[in-house]
Specification:
The chain has 106 residues and is an alpha+beta fold. It has one domain. The longest helix is centred in the middle third of the chain and has 23 residues.
Length: 106
């Protein structure tokens, strides 16, 4: 999905985007399987490193968003990322974001 500065990112939204950009899915892994998402992202970054760096020249805001859920949350949820993943993202000029979608009951 491509979005443009000054237009809504989603048709039903009244909030306007402050940047140009696009969203792509780089992992089909479940929100319950963060380690699999991390592996998929690492493969994606290695495979497309040169193209991602070219996108940086367009001054786009690049963010890798991990969508996560938890099972049976008792007190809080925390998510740890390998240092190698953080370094890979930084080399590509990308920020890391976690979108927490709540608890999943079985």
């Amino acid at each position: 999905m491509v979005f443009w500065k000054g237009t809504p990112r989603v048709q039903s939204s009244k909030r306007l985007s402050t940047t140009n950009g696009f969203n792509i899915s780089v992992s089909s892994s479940s929100g319950l399987d963060l380690p699999a998402q991390v592996r998929d992202v690492s493969k994606f970054l290695r495979r497309h490193h040169a193209e991602i760096r070219r996108l940086r020249r367009l001054r786009l805001l690049l963010v890798m968003d991990f969508g996560v859920n938890v099972r049976d949350q008792r007190i809080f949820a925390s998510f740890r990322f390998p240092l190698t993943t953080i370094i890979e993202l930084a080399k590509c000029g990308m920020a890391l974001e976690v979108s927490y979608y709540g608890e999943v009951s079985e």
